[in-house]
Amino acid sequence: MFQDMELFDLLKKHEEGRVTLVDVRSPKEFAEFHIPGSINIPLLNNEEREEVGTIYTQVGPKEAKKKGLELFSVKLPEFIEQFQSLEKERVVYCSRGGMRSKTAATVVDLMGIKVERLDGGIRSYRKWVMKQLETQNFTKRMYVLNGYTGSGKTVLLRRLKKAGYPVLDLEKMANHRGSIFGQIGLLPNKQKAFDSLLVQGLIHYENSPFLLMEGESKRIGKATLPATLHEKKENSMQLFIHLPLERRVEIILQEYHPEEYPEEIKEAFQKIRKHVHTPVAKEIAKNLTEEKFSSAVALLLKYYYDPMYEKTLKRYAENAQKHIYAADLDEAFARIIRFIGDHEN
Question: Hey, which residues does 171 pair with through a beta bridge?
Fold first, then answer.
């Protein structure tokens, strides 16, 4: 069994593709929170787990275990077959490293399939994640992509990551775009899932001399950044991207697809409407109703988001600002690479 002290090495092997982590909890538990990159081969489905839990509460643990084994025995051949299909080293886990992972390990071992267990299950992993975040000093240099809403910061970060640069994609980790409209078309991750993905990213880039990230607020959707990371981000070099307004409108429309979510867009606008000058707010609402999204976005940028950005700009020291002016994302991408190259070489 893997102890807490060995968990980092296990996750490193998993990150390198040398280990397959198998979550044997129910699909519902897996969906709510799991170790990033692990696969789900459940002993019991959602309904079966609920049935066993009811027996445990109303009758007792002995009867619950008996019912659980009865339900599991029916699907045993398929369960074994799924484990046999895994070619890498296998490590199983459940909630606490108890009955379910022991049962899974015992059964597959009897079939001659080598498998190990994660001691303490997902709970020990969660404690380890919290410890990593609490003790993380975030001493690496950071370059923070900042700028007006719609400047393509997320698009640029993902292009940089694809090009091999060390990027912490916080919006992807949170599964939220970081604005009042940020969860439209998405299912935001909760704090546990966000923390896990963040630690995974830190493990992946442990040997990188610097990190790239976006100028997010402390809270992104349902997730909150660790205080030390937020402080480091605020005190790092800010790369402010400047694109023409019409280009920013195009980027927002491509990212949010308002034509697919017109009602959600209108509902989100109502949450900020009181902060927009009344005549402008009426025009934006009219444009949204008529699905004139380009006009609505342009007005939102000019009268709501851009003024907020101007206030944000004043938070940073002048020597921590680099303004990157570009006609489009290709030019901005090239200028960012050039800036980083000049400072890292």
Answer: none
